[in-house]
Amino acid sequence: MAEHFNDRLKEALIARGMTAAELARSIGVQNGYMSNLLSGNITQPKKHLDSICKILRIRPQWLIAGKGDPNQEDEEDTYVEVELFDFNSDKQEKKYLKNIRVPFVQQDVDSQLFAVKMPANVLFEKTAVVVVNKNGRGSGLFLINYKNELFISSRLDNINSIIWVHNTNEKIDIDTAVVLGKIVAFFDYYL
After folding, report:
1. Helices (H), the chain
2. DSSP-assigned beta bridge partners for residue 165
3. What is the architecture of the domain spanning 5-73?
């Protein structure tokens, strides 16, 4: 178990798949403040403790003292409702199926989440639900519509360029593809 506040904060960031910069942006502080927390220069963030714990879904007593279960268990805070769509390439359309509740995924203020039912393919052994943030930016996995088929592509942001790596043998022209958004979660389809 992590002995110090900064070590527990690092552990929580990793567990939630967040970067320090994303957490800083979510709670409205500068990256330097987050750097001071992670380096141990600030040992207890009294002013921002509640916000940090809410965003990371952890208990304050665990973050401060390392005691108890780290996970928050408030049922309402652990799920988010999103629209689920089925993508039909034969009819070249996205069809609304229903709203679904999925385990909480981290959202920025300007997030617009939706989910897409993806059939079994080379990436998924079974049908899967892919949760997408329409406004997602930066490096990561993205859902791409190219020639009325869905693909998952990796985007790598460099200082002066963006590199796309597509998870298919088909050649994809990113200039004519439609980037639907950044993937924030995958779930098995049980509905």
Report:
1. 5-16, 20-27, 31-39, 49-56, 60-65
2. 154
3. Orthogonal Bundle (1.10)
Burial environment of residue 107 by CB neighbours within 10 A (0 to 12, 13 to 18, 19 or more):
middle
Q: Per-residue pLDDT for the chain (191 aa), expressed as one digit of tens each?
A: 578 899 999 999 988 888 999 999 888 889 999 999 999 998 877 888 888 988 888 888 888 888 887 877 654 556 678 888 887 655 556 787 788 777 666 655 566 888 888 877 767 788 888 899 888 888 999 999 888 888 899 999 998 999 999 888 888 898 999 999 999 888 887 65
Q: What is the pTM of this model?
A: 0.56
The type of residue at 23 is: L
Instruction: Tell me how far apart the alpha carbons of residues 31 and 27 are, in angstroms, rounded to a whole number.
Output: 11
Structure tokens at 55: 């965003």
Query: Rounded CA gap, 150 and 144, in Å?
Result: 6
Q: What is the CATH number of domain 76-188?
A: 2.10.109.10
φ, ψ (nearest 5 deg) of residue 38: -70, -25
CATH 1.10.260.40 residue window(s) in the chain: 5-73
